[in-house]
């Protein structure tokens, strides 16, 4: 194989694929990227961790002899990063080595044969639809903070995607994530082609890699193809980045049962001043006392934290509240995570009693909805 490629293109492509590669690997080939030079002056680069695979196709300056080889992902990325701007990089293979040349620099890197490189077999992906990249990015941002990190409940280690029919809103596509303490749900109209789609759980790592890729594709549409076991996201059209992931093989709990419908106490406040108030009083909280207590009275909320080691803190936040007085406690970090997702000037908290889950949303039209379990304080 012999090909020449612009450094900027190579670097951009390697930055997309190399983060899939785990730093510590027991299987040597998984530390490598597959580089394939094909006729028509194209180069394909791919990386995988056996569960997730990212590949991209890009224009080369020239392909003198087609071929394919695998080479260390992080090493090649670090080299490309340090090469001078505007340089052209020549990639050539000979005797189990890859020669990388740019300007006056020469590198000889060890390689492994292409045939050893594992490729995820997608199989048939019967459901296909498109979503604008901006909307997909918002869907991820509004839900992923609630993904569980507990490996024992592996079926909660991702974002749950499913279609639903709502009597008033029509056919919907919903994304949900929960760790048992909080729940985040994002709803959008069902895209054309998503009808009959199986319920799927997209793993946390795939969600993280996809979100990074969406950063550069904000104005385009993302083609999504899936089956019950695999999902593929294609960004940037022909010759763009393709991310393929296995799905989590498990059953996501029926989360709709924990979304409260009868919470009759409505509290409205400014999310920014509420966030800052919680953040300030939580300064003295320790690992054992992460709870912030909210005392609700007519048109005000008193936030307080009591820590046996660090003393006490309290702050009053103006609010709109007209129901019976109530004291309720929440995990300060969980509350801040949710408030950080609210863009508007008001946030609604629908409360019932100190032991019942609380519903949090911007307003009733908002596509995002959150449920937070209280803590004893």
Walk me through what this model shows:
It is a single chain. This protein is an alpha+beta fold and 377 residues long. It folds into 3 domains: 2-116, DNA Polymerase III, Chain A, domain 2 (Roll); 127-255, DNA Polymerase III, Chain A, domain 2 (Roll), CATH 3.10.150.10; 259-372, DNA Polymerase III, subunit A, domain 2 (DNA Polymerase III, Chain A, domain 2). Helix content is 16%, strand content 43%. It contains 6 helices and 26 strands. The protein has helices at 7-17, 73-82, 133-143, 204-214, 271-281, 332-339, and strands at 2-6, 32-38, 42-48, 52-59, 62-65, 67-72, 88-94, 97-102, 105-112, 127-132, 158-166, 170-178, 182-189, 200-203, 221-226, 230-235, 241-246, 265-269, 291-297, 300-307, 311-318, 320-321, 326-331, 347-351, 358-361, 368-372. The strands form 3 sheets. A 13-stranded antiparallel sheet has the order 5-1-7-8-9-6-2-3-4-17-16-15-10. Strands 14-11-12-13-26-25-24-18-22 form a 9-stranded antiparallel sheet. The chain has a 4-stranded antiparallel sheet with strand order 21-20-19-23. Helix 1 runs antiparallel to helix 2 (73-82) and helix 5 runs antiparallel to helix 6. The radius of gyration is 25 Å and the shape is elongated.
């Amino acid at each position: 194989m012999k090909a020449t490629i612009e450094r900027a293109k190579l670097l951009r492509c390697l930055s997309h694929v190399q983060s899939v590669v785990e730093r510590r690997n027991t299987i040597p080939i998984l530390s490598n990227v597959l580089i394939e030079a094909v006729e028509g002056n194209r180069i394909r680069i791919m990386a995988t961790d056996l569960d997730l695979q990212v590949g991209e196709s890009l224009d080369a300056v020239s392909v003198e002899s087609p071929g394919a080889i695998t080479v260390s992902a992080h090493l090649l990325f670090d080299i490309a990063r340090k090469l001078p701007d505007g340089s052209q990089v020549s990639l050539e293979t000979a005797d189990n080595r890859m020669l990388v040349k740019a300007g006056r620099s020469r590198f000889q890197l060890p390689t492994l044969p292409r045939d050893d490189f594992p490729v995820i077999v997608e199989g048939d992906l019967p459901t296909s639809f498109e979503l604008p990249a901006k909307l997909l990015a918002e869907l991820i941002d509004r839900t992923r903070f609630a993904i569980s990190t507990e490996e024992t409940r592996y079926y909660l280690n991702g974002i749950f995607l499913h279609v639903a029919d709502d009597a008033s809103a029509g056919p919907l596509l919903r994304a949900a994530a929960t760790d048992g303490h909080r729940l985040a749900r994002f709803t959008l109209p069902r895209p054309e082609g998503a009808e009959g789609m199986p319920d799927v759980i997209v793993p946390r790592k795939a969600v993280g890699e996809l979100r990074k890729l969406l950063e550069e594709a904000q104005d385009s549409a993302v083609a999504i193809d899936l089956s019950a076991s695999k999902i593929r996201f294609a960004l940037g059209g022909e010759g763009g980045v393709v991310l393929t992931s296995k799905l989590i093989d498990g059953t996501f709990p029926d989360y709709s049962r924990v979304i409260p419908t009868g919470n009759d106490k409505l509290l409205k406040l400014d999310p920014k001043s509420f966030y800052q108030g919680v953040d300030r009083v939580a300064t003295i909280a320790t690992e054992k006392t992460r709870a912030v207590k909210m005392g609700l009275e007519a048109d005000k909320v008193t936030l307080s934290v009591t820590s046996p080691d660090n003393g006490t803190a309290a702050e009053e936040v103006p609010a709109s509240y007209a129901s019976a007085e109530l004291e309720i406690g929440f995990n300060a970090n969980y509350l801040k995570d949710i408030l950080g997702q609210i863009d508007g000037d008001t946030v609604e908290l629908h409360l019932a009693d100190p032991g019942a889950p609380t519903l949090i949303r911007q307003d009733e039209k908002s596509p995002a909805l959150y449920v937070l379990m209280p803590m004893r304080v």
